[in-house]
Design a protein that fits this description.
The complex is a heterodimer of chains A (about 220) and B (about 200). Chain A is built from eight helices and two strands; from the N terminus they run H-H-H-H-H-H-H-E-E-H. Chain A is mainly α. Chain A has one domain (about 1-215). The two termini of chain A are about 30 Å apart. Chain B has about 200 residues and is an alpha+beta fold. Chain B has two domains: about 1-50; about 55-195, no CATH class. Chain B is built from four helices and seven strands; from the N terminus they run H-E-E-E-E-E-H-E-E-H-H. In chain B, a hairpin with a 4-residue loop joins strand 4 and strand 5 (about 110-115). The chains are: A mainly alpha (about 220), B alpha+beta (about 200). The interface between A and B is medium-sized, with 36 and 30 residues.
């Protein structure tokens, strides 16, 4: 039982550090650039992806024994687009303010390489519980990356932070009135930000794991 | 591929499409009335915000801009006309910007509101910011033009989002006000109502 638990914990952490979708696998970079120019958009996009990732992994894992291998990809796509549509409808109904901002990018989750990859590589071969742990880890890793990138871009680019204080309320914290490095909130700055943060993430990770090894 | 495979694939797809369809139908049935109410409430709220002094905002008619249908309203207080509200669209950087404009009865802009758009988040969506929208107060149609840099008489462009600024000012707002002036003046002010 205890080995089972450590296994789940490892699976969960795997998605956050070792196989972080954006910083390690460099997948799904399109949304990481498109929606991360303010913190609030990054957070809600990350939450939507987390929900879809977990639900897709759960569904695929439940059906893994009945899916015919020849049609597995169309079935994965159908499951993913189904859950994305559910997310879209729920957001439009319950958080219309947020949906007005990130709605455009929610539909794009259908085409996320990371979600299809987890369905194909993990959920279709593993039991329900490990699949959910994997989905949760991957989703939280993605959310974490989006928060880091959008925090960095908004702060450096506009010297503000848009912090969601509830589903429909936000608080905008302003450091200064001028926009110090406007390019960081522009699309080109997105590439710079992702590059810089990816390097930093890997540097810290390498340093930390080296230390762990020498002990 | 054997007949057994074909049968299994067919059952696979049929069952999954059916289940998926049912789940979507269920969520849609529950969510769509809420979405519809959200949109209606947003519009009603937008009208009251635009013309807080008015008791009623009655719909006068429809008009088209960029092949999109838009509405216009007459605002009354105690039976007297105090102004007009018009919905208009501007062709922005990546979307049509849905805008509401309130004018007084001399067609001076009182307030504008950006209802929906899909401009670049973080840049173009600054058209929703009060700092940009408040510039429109007291502007007559001649002053509805965008200037890059400091200006008090006209509308100052948002840095990094000149196209979106222009779309709101010179496309949506200006065309909307021009349409109101033309229609309402030709129709003889408050008698427009009887025109249709």
């Amino acid at each position: 039982m205890s080995s089972n638990n450590t296994n789940l914990k490892e699976l969960f952490l795997n998605g956050i550090v070792k196989e972080n979708t954006i910083f390690k696998l460099a997948l799904s970079l399109c949304p990481s650039i498109a929606v991360t120019n303010n913190l609030k958009n990054g957070i809600f996009m990350g939450l939507a992806v987390l929900f879809v990732q977990v639900m897709v992994n759960l569904t695929i894992s439940m059906m893994r024994k009945v899916i015919h291998p020849k049609v597995r990809l169309p079935i994965f796509m159908l499951v993913i687009s189904g859950w994305v549509t559910v997310t879209q409808l729920m957001m439009a109904a319950f958080v219309p303010d947020v949906y007005a901002k990130v709605g455009l990018y929610i539909a794009l989750i259908v085409a996320f390489a990371s979600i299809l990859a987890r369905a194909e590589m993990f959920a279709s071969k593993n039991k329900i519980l490990p699949s959910m742990a994997d989905g949760l880890g991957m989703g939280i890793g993605f959310l974490f990356a989006l928060i880091v990138i959008s925090f960095f871009r908004e702060l450096v680019g506009k010297a503000t932070l848009t912090i969601p204080t509830g589903l429909t309320t936000t608080y905008v914290w302003t450091l200064m009135e001028t926009k110090p490095l406007l390019i960081m909130v522009l699309p080109a700055g997105g590439f710079f930000a992702v590059g810089i943060l990816m390097a930093a993430f890997n540097w810290i990770d390498a340093k930390y794991s080296k230390k762990a090894h020498s002990h | 591929m054997t007949g057994k495979d074909i049968l299994k694939i067919t059952i696979n797809l049929v069952v999954i499409y059916l289940i998926g369809g049912f789940i979507l139908a269920f969520v849609y049935a529950n969510a769509s009335p809420k979405i519809y109410r959200n949109n209606e409430e947003a519009e009603k709220k937008a009208l009251t915000l635009l013309m807080p002094e008015a008791d009623t905002n009655e719909k006068l008619g429809d008009w088209t801009i960029h092949d999109k249908h838009a509405k216009y309203f007459i605002s009354k207080k105690g039976g007297e006309t105090i102004g007009y509200i018009i919905q208009s669209f501007g062709k922005g950087y990546s979307s049509y910007i849905n805008t509401f404009i309130a004018v007084d009865k001399d067609f001076i802009v009182q307030k504008i509101n950006v209802l929906s758009h899909a401009e670049t988040p973080g840049l173009g969506d600054e058209i929703e910011a009060d700092a940009f929208k408040n510039q429109f107060k007291g502007k007559s149609i001649e002053h509805l033009k965008v200037i890059k840099g400091e200006t008090k008489d006209d509308i100052q462009a948002i840095s990094g989002a000149t196209i979106s600024s222009r779309a709101v000012t010179e496309d949506a707002v200006k065309n909307g006000v021009a349409f109101l002036i033309k229609t309402v003046r030709e129709g003889g002010n408050t008698d427009v109502q009887q025109q249709h």
